[in-house]
Amino acid sequence: MSAATGHRKTTNGAGRKPPSRLETVLDHIKQRIADGSLKPGSQLPPEIELARELGLSRTPVREAVKVLAAAGVLSVKHGHGTFVSAGAQASLGQLLLFEIYLKDTTPQKLMEVRTLFERSCAELAAQRRTDEDLAAMRACIERLRPLVEADPIDFDATLEADLDFHRAIYRAAQNELVATLANFVLNMVSGWLRRSHASGGLADTVRLHEIMYTMIETRNSGGARECYGVEANMAHFRKMLEQMESRDGATRVS
User: Fold this and answer.
1) Whose CB has fewer CB within 10 Å in the chain, the N or C terminal residue?
2) Domain spans of the chain?
3) What is the pLDDT of residues 20-59, one digit of tens each?
4) Which one has a higher pLDDT value, 26 or 137?
5) Paired residues of 84 in beta bridges
6) Closest-CA residue to 71 (of 188, 168, 180, 179)
7) Quick check: 173 and 166 in contact, CB under 8 A?
8) Sign (positive/negative) of CA torsion 209, 137, 63, 13?
9) Model-level pTM?
10) How, if at all, do strands 74-77 and 81-84 pair?
11) Which CATH class is domain 3-94?
């Protein structure tokens, strides 16, 4: 059994989720640094080797390296490889504290942070997107469309397609620091996204993704239409959060 398959089977209480592919890679690298098998100055195995070891594609490995490099845990030396930074243990501690802090916050606060990044990334993507970026976004939408209409619905698959659409927008922004931070926050809210899917929040998702796609395709980075694309997505998720919290409150009272 691959690492990815094994993790997917450790599903789900309410609000809980199995680790994403990105989280699986992050946890693997962080654990190897923590247990000393990767020391400061050590070179990471090649992307393809790590991907094969974890039973994943190279994409989440590449994204994990970007996250850890932005956090100061890894150092990427182009043409030479990826190495554990000299201050990796301290940076890892700071990253862990940040993760704990984010996981201990409220969904509403995370939503506010996410909205900031969604706006920035959508605006930059509208200015900088390439045809390849548009193709990646379109592929995510078309991947999600039949999943939404399936019976029964595979909510793990809908979550991945939803997240991948937003990650494609982040990449199209062509700012690795902004994309890394936006993706980090997206991972923090992904459990709530999955709950919103399972609570009926999928009905409008494809339509809202189409709105954002159109704004980016037409390079409408400024104006009300771009804001509407982001705000409609955020308002949709905010409404689902409120409905879930209301149901959770009613369950606790009863």
Assistant:
1) C
2) 3-94, 105-246
3) 787 889 889 999 998 999 999 999 999 999 999 999 988 8
4) 137
5) 74
6) 180
7) no
8) positive
9) 0.64
10) antiparallel
11) mainly alpha
Alpha carbon distances (Å) from 50 to 60, 109, 133, 140: 10, 34, 26, 25
Tell me the pLDDT tens digit for each residue of 219-243. 987 643 445 556 666 676 667 666 6
Q: Which two tokens stand for residue 174?
A: 């062509």
Show the tokens assigned to 7: 């993790």
CA 247 to chain centre: 26
Q: To 10 degrees, what angle do helices 155-172 and 131-149 make?
A: 160
Which pLDDT does position 13 carry in this prediction? Answer: 44
Q: How far apart are CA 106 and CA 65, in angstroms?
A: 27
What 3-state class would DSSP assign to 154? Answer: coil
**Hey, what long-range contacts does 153-161 have (CB within 8 A, 24 or more apart)?**
153/197, 153/202, 155/194, 155/197, 155/198, 156/8, 156/11, 156/18, 156/194, 158/197, 158/202, 158/205, 159/17, 159/190, 159/193, 159/194, 159/197, 160/20, 160/21
The H helix count followed by the E strand count for the chain is 11, 2
Tokens for 26, please give them. 């992050």
CB atoms within 10 A of CB 108: 11
The pLDDT score that the predictor gives to residue 6 is: 43
Fold of 105-246: Four Helix Bundle (Hemerythrin (Met), subunit A) (1.20.120)
Indicate the residue type of 4.
A
* Tokens encoding 242: 């409120």
Distance CA 159, CA 113 (A): 20
